[in-house]
Each structure stands twice: as structure tokens, then as C-alpha cells.
Design brief:
Helix content: under 10%
Largest sheet: 4 strands, antiparallel
Structural class: mainly beta
Radius of gyration: 31 Å
Strand order of the largest sheet: 3-4-5-6
Number of strands: 6
Order of helices and strands: EEEEEE
Shape: elongated
Number of helices: 0
Strand content: over 45%
């Protein structure tokens, strides 16, 4: 924080209700320049592997800040679905008419790429 003021009697343009006042806080502008970044990685193993990788970069000079990120996800997965149904007649006797059994095994793989880039440009030295 560069400056904090407590205004107990604000002027009319703030239309302050009651007599609590206003807190006026002014932040310092970040003047650090240079580049920085981070790399993240994770691995999970159940019956099949799961991998997440990430890269974040930032470069700032006097007026321009450029930043970006890239993430990659790889996972192998499966679904097991076992269904067993029995069928009965709709009458009151409800006699057994048959059954149906089904087994599903579905394996799939996900490869996901996600990237974004952005920038900030300072128009004046104060903003």
C-alpha cells in the first residue's frame, strides 16, 4: 500500500450514508521487470495412469506485461457396466418370463491440451 486515508467527513459527490466515512486506499504500481515462470507436474496411478503437466511464463518490461500458460493432461480410463434384468408377466401371477445379462467394458484415453496468452499494456506511468 502506498497510502491509506480515512475521510470522516466525505464530500457530497460520495453521497455517504450515515457518518461512518470513507477509506481511501491507493496501491503502489508493481515496478518489477524481468521474466519468471513455473513448471508443474503430477502423476497418478490407479489401475491406469493419469498425468498432468503445466508451464506458466511471464515477462514484464517498463510498459508491457506478457503472460501465458500451457497444460497437458493424459489419462487412460475405463468403464465397467454389468446389467442383469429379469422379466415377469404383467398379470397378477407375475410369472417369470426370462432374463437378460449384459457386460460392457469400455476403455478410453484422453489427451487434452489447453493454452492461453495475454498481455497488459500501461498507457501512463501512473496506471
Amino acid at each position: 500500500m502506498a497510502k491509506i486515508d480515512l475521510i470522516t467527513n466525505p464530500w457530497a459527490k460520495y453521497d455517504a450514508a450515515g457518518n461512518a466515512g470513507i477509506i481511501d486506499s491507493r496501491l503502489k504500481k508493481d515496478t518489477r521487470v524481468g521474466a519468471n515462470g513455473s513448471i508443474t507436474s503430477s502423476l497418478g496411478q490407479g489401475e491406469l495412469p493419469k498425468i498432468n503437466q503445466g508451464l506458466q511464463l511471464n515477462h514484464r518490461n517498463k510498459n508491457l506485461n506478457v503472460f501465458g500458460s500451457y497444460n497437458y493432461v493424459h489419462r487412460k480410463d475405463f468403464n465397467r457396466l454389468n446389467i442383469y434384468r429379469e422379466f415377469f408377466s404383467p398379470n397378477e401371477a407375475r410369472t417369470y418370463q426370462g432374463a437378460y445379462g449384459q457386460q460392457n467394458r469400455i476403455r478410453h484415453q484422453i489427451n487434452s491440451h489447453n493454452a492461453w496468452v495475454g498481455f497488459d499494456y500501461n498507457l501512463t506511468p501512473k496506471i
